[in-house]
Design brief:
The complex is a heterodimer of chains A (545) and B (168). Chain A has 20 helices and 4 strands. Chain A is an all-alpha fold. Chain A has one domain: Cytochrome C Oxidase, Chain A. In chain A, the strands form 2 sheets. A two-stranded antiparallel sheet of chain A has the order 1-4. Chain A has a two-stranded parallel ribbon with strand order 2-3. The longest helix of chain A is centred in the N-terminal third of the chain and has 35 residues. Chain A is globular. Chain A starts with a helix and ends in a 5-residue tail after the last strand. Chain B is built from 2 helices and 11 strands, in the order H-E-E-E-E-E-E-E-E-E-E-E-H. Chain B has 2 domains: 35 residues; 122 residues, Immunoglobulin-like (Sandwich). Chain B is α+β, with helices and mostly antiparallel strands and 168 residues long. The longest helix of chain B has 26 residues. The chains are: A mainly alpha (545), B alpha+beta (168). Chains A and B meet through helix 7, helix 10, helix 11 and helix 14 of A and helix 1, strand 1, strand 8 and strand 9 of B.
Chain lengths: 545, 168
């Protein structure tokens, strides 16, 4: 019915999806090269890269800054239109979000490939990248702000046409995700725009590395929820439909997302537990709120598994765990998301260790950390996005998924691979193996790291094979699939409707944003004021790679 | 808001669990003495040669079994690159970076702190077992990052050396 109106927007959605997938394609290859380094096989040199660290910069930036941001922008634009049953409010903004993303990727990609910006995805000063690297990242973030604006305008237009009604669930959740991200991204945006770009252009001689870290991590933890929540949108509102079940509660789902809105940002210091420039009191406050942000994921764990269990039992599953076997494991989209959930459980548990205040001293900046986040963003998020792509690409192109069985295999390879990889990295980290280090050339390797390094290489290779299976299915669908199909977005029926709860949980977004602003003022305000009374603008830019 | 009975129970258990974890961590920190690093002051990284204590990096005994180690991190070494302390010592490291971010990690201890130009990092740890320990830089600091480390030799005391010699 709306297909005609959606089509112009969908074209940009599809092309933005291609940017995302192209970015992660190169990012995954870099990851494979890194894994092989652990066995002293140096493919970086073979393919003409300047160093391990150039590859590591590409790996981080392409996977978690470009792939995620581009994918989320495309996916939630698509979701918002279907959920509200209307095209985006502004065609120009849909086009602009794509153009900015494209520009950003080209600029940042160029400056990474010419080795002028080998600063890793955290780009901590005083390592100084080429100004255009920062400008490229600014464009990527601007693209996400345009998406936010467009979604907000679209929801508002819907509200004008439906006075007094509750915004449909998926559009509401998409809006909350972007609202959270917009507020969170102000930290890194001010870091890059105010501190780094003028400094990299030579307008300012010295910068403050501690302040830059604080601004970076203001965004840096919330960003992981920006990646995760679109996967949660799929787990809550789409996966139940795909397995033949229902979503338990509309208002509870909204409440979970609103809790993420509140608690994603005021927890940034838990990435700076061992920073010298942050007093212990602030670290403690952020530690407490970090436990709070774990809580909505616990609710999600129950809700999503309850939906899945209902489906498994309805399909004749028996016993405590027997229902799991009855789920539609032959559907590549379902399998990807189920395995994403399994990986994410362990990711969550290991994250609780990182985030547990003084326990962090055991693992901070060791390979435990990449061990952890390859289970969260690297599996929970990544496999979910692949799972979504398995229906979204056919929906956008009208082409039937090519070789769905290979799609199922891809997720299994990834999960088995990441289990070995992360177990290795975690074990190495507990023995003090540092992260983001070219281990093959390290001059201080301990014996206890040998098996962890082997596991990293073997697991990483399996992950690479899994990802390549995905890309084979993708390319096959685009170029070899002849059968035309009409695929629509899965939307789960809901057992408890929004009207069952007080509107404070389902509608009054402004109130929640106000509480968030107060929380940020409490958790960052006094610290920032006292920091600015005596900042440390002492560091000149250096290029030491 | 209507919430299913089992889910309610699960929510309460989750809250309780997180509460217990947090309290355990706080007790360990504020009563058990396993505390995070606190700010150690500011310093100009370009003036280290004229700024005590960084004008004289090295080991100093500050009390019975108490040592202070002043250290500078720079691409891609720690200065001094080797230190010696007797077993059973409590050592406070005062470290700063001369150039980019570095890290400071002694595997199998609680010594783990970031080194940020302009900031002084402080970390205290106790060495109860003799042997060679390593300080490893755990933050990417450029092309030579993987070669940046220092050694700590924790030496047995005279009486222990004697006791061991007798055993043999």
């Amino acid at each position: 019915m709306h297909a005609q109106q959606f089509r112009p927007h969908d074209r940009f959605v599809l092309w933005q999806l291609y940017i995302a997938l192209a970015a992660v394609f190169l990012g995954v290859i870099m990851g494979f090269f890194q894994a092989l380094e652990r066995m002293n096989i140096d493919l970086f040199k073979v393919f003409g890269f300047a160093s391990y660290y150039q590859g590591l910069t590409l790996h981080g930036v392409l996977n978690v800054l470009v792939f995620t941001t581009a994918f989320i922008g495309a996916f939630l634009t698509y979701v918002t239109m279907r959920s509200l049953g209307r095209p985006m409010a502004s065609y120009r903004l849909t086009a602009l979000q794509f153009v900015l993303m494209m520009l950003g990727v080209v600029l940042a990609g160029w400056k990474m490939l010419d080795n002028s910006s080998t600063v890793l995805f955290t780009f901590y000063p005083p390592l100084q990248a080429h100004p255009l690297f920062y400008v490229g990242l600014v464009f990527v973030v601007l693209s996400s702000w345009v998406t936010f604006l467009n979604i907000a305008l679209t929801v508002r237009a819907w509200q004008r046409d439906h006075p007094g009604e509750t915004v449909p669930l998926q559009a509401f959740l998409s809006l909350v995700v972007y609202l959270m991200w917009f507020i969170a991204s102000l930290g890194v945006a001010s870091e890059v725009l105010v501190l780094l770009i003028p400094w990299s252009l030579g307008w300012v001689e010295r910068t403050d590395p501690q302040l830059a870290r604080t601004l970076f991590w203001f965004t840096g933890h919330a960003i992981v929820y920006f990646w995760l929540l679109p996967a949660y949108i799929s787990w809550y509102t789409m996966l139940p439909k795909q397995v033949g079940s229902k979503l338990l509660s509309d208002p509870l789902t909204r409440l979970v997302f609103l809790m993420f809105l509140l608690f994603s940002v005021p927890v940034g210091f838990h990435h700076q537990f061992v920073d010298p420039g942050v007093p212990v009191m602030w670290k403690t406050i952020h530690a407490a709120l970090t436990y709070a942000v774990f809580f909505p994921s616990m609710i999600t764990f129950f809700s999503v598994i309850a939906s899945l269990e209902m489906a498994g039992r309805a399909r004749g599953g028996q016993g405590l765990f027997g229902w799991i076997l009855k789920l539609p494991w032959n559907d590549p989209s379902v399998t990807a998301q189920l395995l994403a959930g399994i990986g994410f459980m362990f990711g969550g548990i290991s994250g609780l260790i990182n985030a547990s205040y003084n326990l962090n001293q055991v693992v901070h900046n060791t390979s435990f950390v990449p061990g952890h986040f390859h289970l969260t963003v690297g599996t929970g998020v990544f496999l979910s996005y692949l799972g979504i792509s398995y229906w979204l690409i056919p929906a956008l192109t009208g082409r039937k998924l090519w070789q769905p069985r290979l799609g199922v295999v891809s997720s299994w390879l990834w999960l088995i691979g990441v289990s070995i990889f992360s177990r290795g990295q975690i074990a190495g980290g507990l023995e003090g193996m540092p992260r983001r280090t070219w281990m093959a050339a390290a001059t201080y390797v301990l014996d206890a790291w040998r098996i962890p390094n082997m596991m990293t290489a073997v697991g990483g290779t399996l992950m690479f094979l899994g990802a390549m299976s995905f890309f084979t299915v993708l390319l096959g669908t685009l170029f070899l699939s002849r059968e035309r199909v009409t695929v629509t977005m899965p939307v789960a029926d809901i057992i408890t409707p929004p009207e069952a709860a007080s509107p404070i949980f389902t509608r009054q977004l402004g109130l929640w944003v106000a509480v968030l602003v107060v929380l940020i003022m409490i958790t960052y305000g006094p610290y920032m004021i006292s920091y600015f009374s005596n900042p440390a603008f002492v560091a000149r830019g250096l290029r030491v790679w | 808001m209507p919430i299913e009975r089992f889910e309610k129970v699960f929510i309460w258990i989750s809250l309780l669990l997180l509460e217990v974890f947090f309290v355990a961590v706080l007790v360990a920190a504020f009563f058990g003495g396993i505390q995070l690093p606190a700010p150690g002051g500011l310093v100009d990284p370009e003036q280290l040669a004229n700024t005590p204590p960084f004008d004289q990096p090295g080991v100093r005994q500050v009390g019975d079994g108490q040592y202070e180690v002043v250290m500078i991190a720079q691409t891609w070494q720690f200065i001094p690159g080797e230190i010696r302390v007797p077993v059973g010592s409590t050592v406070t490291f005062r470290i700063t970076s001369r150039d980019v971010l570095h890290g400071f990690l002694i595997p199998n201890t609680n010594a783990n702190v970031m080194l940020v130009p302009g900031q002084v990092s402080e970390v205290t740890t106790r060495f109860d077992k003799p042997g060679e320990y390593r300080i490893i830089c755990h933050e990417y600091c450029g092309i030579g990052h993987q070669t940046m480390f220092a050694r700590i030799f924790v030496e047995p005391t005279a009486s222990e050396t004697q006791a061991r010699a007798q055993e043999e």
